[in-house]
Amino acid sequence: MRLRATPKALALRLDGGETPEAIRALPLPEGLPLEVEVAGPVSQEVLETLLALGRPLTLLPPRNRPSTGTLVVAKTLRSGERVEHPGTVVVLGDVNPGAEVVAGGDVIVVGKLRGLAHAGAYGDEARFIFALELAAKQVRIGPHLAQAPEGEKAPGPELARVEEGRIVVEPWAKRKSPPVPPRSA
Fold it and tell me: Is 182 part of any domain?
């Protein structure tokens, strides 16, 4: 959730997962209407709380973020390094602890993912995170957040995606692939 003042209104961005209590706790100056950008799944209770604030309210769709294709990072990301891109990010190397990859699209790591990865950073929960070794303490997809359980580590490539409102991680080898059509010579 982000709140900023514009000359004509208070602009509020809802990323999803906000609570009615968080809405009621917002420091809202008097006299300005609310323009609410809904960028993630918002509950009925949150919408009712916004209406109960008693000020003019305009609901806006999420801003279209241009997908600028794929960014390929051909190196290992060290602690403190951050890569952010509105499209898909492919890292040809490791993402070490303390490094971050934030993508509007998918995150693909051809190496070990031990830092933070956020796919669908602008609210798109249909994105995924793939790594040859997924050892991150935390991953994000759209508005969803998952923390790795202690001690569990699957060998081989893994894919993280959102299923029924939560992040699931599955071994790449167990995925069912559609048959590849024969090539003509």
Answer: no
- DSSP letters spanning 78-134: PTT-EEEESSEEEESS-B-TT-EEEESS-EEEEEEE-SEEEESTTS-TT-EEEEEEE
Average pLDDT over residues 61-84: 84
> In this structure, is residue 184 part of a structural domain?
no
Q: Which CATH number is 131's domain given?
A: 2.160.20.70
**Nearest CA among 54, 79, 56, 51 for reference residue 10:** 56
Task: Please provide the size of the chain in residues.
Answer: 185
Establish if 185 belongs to a structural domain.
no
Of 156, 132, 136, 166, nearest to 148 by C-alpha is 136
Average pLDDT score over residue span 134-138 = 90
